[in-house]
Design brief:
mainly alpha, 2 domains, globular
Amino acid sequence: MTEKITEVNKLCEKIEDLKKKTRIIEGNTYTTSEIAKRAMDKNLSKWNYRNSVLIILDAVLAINRNYLTFVKPRILRFKKNFGEIDTINKMIDLIKSKGINKFSEIIQYNDPTRIKLLLTVYKQFKSYMEKKGFDDDLEAMKNWAENFKLNRAKDDIILSIKGIGLSTVQYLRMLLGVDTMMPDRHIKAWIKESLKIDRIGKMTYIPLLEEVSKQSNVSCKMICELIWALKKPKNTRP
């Protein structure tokens, strides 16, 4: 326990140092705090979903795909063309009525396996909602997100689905308002360098960073953006 407290305190100090670092991008000098804040502002809409259907659609489409060029256009198109599909039950009925292949065309994603995965996730959340006695999709999903336990992850209703990894689960939880992070090599490298250690697993560094966030009063999302700001290419606008 003492060792963990020391690690948390050390990383909190590193966060304060990180905020003050500067980068020269396109000839202009910015602090990592400025770069991170702008990145947070750009992504603000992504973290403010009020629709359970779109949250799940976003998370499943995002697996191994670029958010801005692939996921976002499909989310906006679906929202425009199927705005009335605003509950999990309606989405399940839509996919079943159209069929996997036709729904693939609607989403413009020619991968029936991904659509089957999408349907499975909707069904799992429907079962969770019914089992827990929730009347509202979003409330049920938020309850799942808030009660997810990393140390019991293998038994989770979503992570147990074949094709869903911890990154997707963590992303889903973030979309549902939980202040956490996805596994990330840059974050991992920063923690290893800061603590002067050779190895650390995602099951260790994710809860460690969550504790650092609480102690430093800096959100996990902001901590991640601060670290990524150091990696930002010089020719990329903040």
